[in-house]
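Format notes (please read before filing issues)

Several people have asked whether sequences and structure tokens are stored in separate files. They are not. Every record keeps both together, in the order shown below: the sequence lines, then the token lines. Line labels are part of the format and must not be stripped during preprocessing.
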Amino acid sequence: MLVVLSGGGTAGHINPALALAEVLQSRGVDVVYAGTPGGIEARLVPEAGLEFKGFEAGGFNRNHPLTLPKSLAKIQKSTKVARAWFDEIKPDAVVGFGGYVCIPVARAAEQMHIPVVVHEQNSVMGMANAYLAKRAQAVCLTYEHAASALSDKSHVQVTGNPVRAQVFDATREAGRMRFDVPEDALMLLVTGGSLGARHLNNALVKLKDKLLSYKDLYIVHVTGPKELENVQQALNLSEEEQKRWQLYGYTDHMGDAMAASDLIVSRAGATTLAEISARGLPALLVPFPYATEDHQTMNAQACVEAGAAQMIADADVESEQFSNLLCEMIESAELRQNMKKAAEQFETEHAAKRLADIVMNVARG
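Then the structure lines:
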């Protein structure tokens, strides 16, 4: 059996696909990946040991309609290239995870009567997935709310968002050793995503004295590469304080950091939330306010309603409300334990296996 995975543009599309690939390969399924040659998938996919095939694809600016013909021309050309590729490799199914590159790949599959599965990571379905879901044999969701975009819900199944094995394999002991945090200390992880979050960084700077007053608290603070220097200057940590407040522009060891942590302050991207729930990590979420259709707020709301997280708007993150919420989580072991139990109810560890079951059933016809 051969399955083609496709997705591009952001790690939020790519990491769930790689998590699915791990499970499929463990079951003896051959997997190849179709993405854009200039996207981050062109680096991440080969690093994961998968064959990668590049296809040109691009979106269009809704404020500039003249960009639409160029986008359609790319899609049509890549659809023809994908058909020729499929003639050669003869896949049994195609799985789209979002991003414009999925459109020509899945359209080629439809034209050749190859079954298509769509997976949507967010609570609001992206444009490419919404388009492809109309004719897909299965539509798999992380959040049931995403189905509101579909008129036909007969092929919809809620699987959760797949998380790569390295997130589950990371241990608290190894994470604490990597970040030099004592076993009996309380560790707070702060991350604004790969681009960072200025309001969030500013809020932490304002709370410097308060946070350092908790003698057993260690902080691993991922500022975003562009924010690191400013945060370093604003905090002006002494050599002794730097032992308990570590600053990074970016880290390749987020799995270790999450495994080592007792609580997290974070954005609410789909992959981040899946990894948080996979680790059962109590979270204070600050959704990115400019996400399409405010989907990060809706992602976060599902966690809040389950009791697994608290949430505050980006506009309020430098307020006393943020300070109160964070300090309550630091001070209350009972609150953290209740949130951890609630997070574990999402059963994220089974998401990749559920999705693999569906893909293989569809591939078998």
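For reference, the curators noted about this record: The longest strand covers residues 30-35. The two ends are 12 Å apart (CA to CA).
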